[in-house]
Amino acid sequence: MAQALSEEEFHRMQAQLLELRTQNYQLSDDLRKNTAELNAVRQKISTLEKDYIKAQKALSKSKKAQEVDALLSENEMLQGKLHSQEDDFRLQNSTLMQELSKLCSQIEQLEQENTGLKEGRGLQPAASSPTSSPVDGELLRLQAENSALQKKMAALQEGYEKEVQSQKGVEANDEKASETHGQMDSNGVQSHVEASVKGEDSADGATDQMETKCTKLEQRVKELSEVELQLHTEVEEKRLLKEQLQALESSKNTDMTKLQEELAKLSDKLKKKQER
Fold first, then answer.
1. Model confidence over 142-162: pLDDT tens digits?
2. Annotated region Disordered: where (predicted)?
3. Residue partners of 224: CB distance under 8 A and separation at least 6
4. Cβ–Cβ under 8 Å, residues 131 and 139
5. Distances (CA, A) of 158 to 114, 154, 165, 223
6. Distance between first and last Cα of the chain
């Protein structure tokens, strides 16, 4: 069969073989080029994926940073509110303590006046001195002092009534004695008349003394009543101030608790954001 092939067919087949080899070489070159391009594209894709991941991380960090900044600004705002409320409470507390100090000074002065009244010296101005005892102890002391003052006033009033009754009895006896001496015979009882006159003079002197004592006692009772009223007023004012202080402390504690809870929540949020 090989002998049957002509030279022309042989050349044609050889040309076809060369053409096929040439095409094969071209296809091989194209394959290498395409493979190189594919590898380059894959590298670009890998690089782009890495850049995309980096961009996502940067974006996530940026969002977290914005959230952290927002939380920090909110935290600073809450701390500012807390400091402002603490300053307001300190100012109110200072004002109330000054008023308490003034009231304590006035109460001390009233106590000194009360001591002067007990000693029989009347009302006298006393120098005020600041007190340093706690509020509760001061209130208890004032209540005890007030109770003692009321008992003292009751005793003075009782003594005053007894003296008035005894004075009335003395005056009645003097009147009876004068009537009895007036009915006696003037000729035979001259000495008795003179004694009666002396008795009347002494009775008048005793009456004047008793009236003076009664006037002084009435004045002292009146002064004690005024002191008692002042003490009641001061004690009531101090009680009201104590209630205001307690209300302010309760309000401050409530606000502090709320702010601490909000700060704790913000801290938890910050920790969670940082963990992510």
1. 666 666 667 667 777 787 778
2. 160-209
3. 114, 117, 149, 152, 153, 156
4. no
5. 19, 6, 11, 16
6. 82
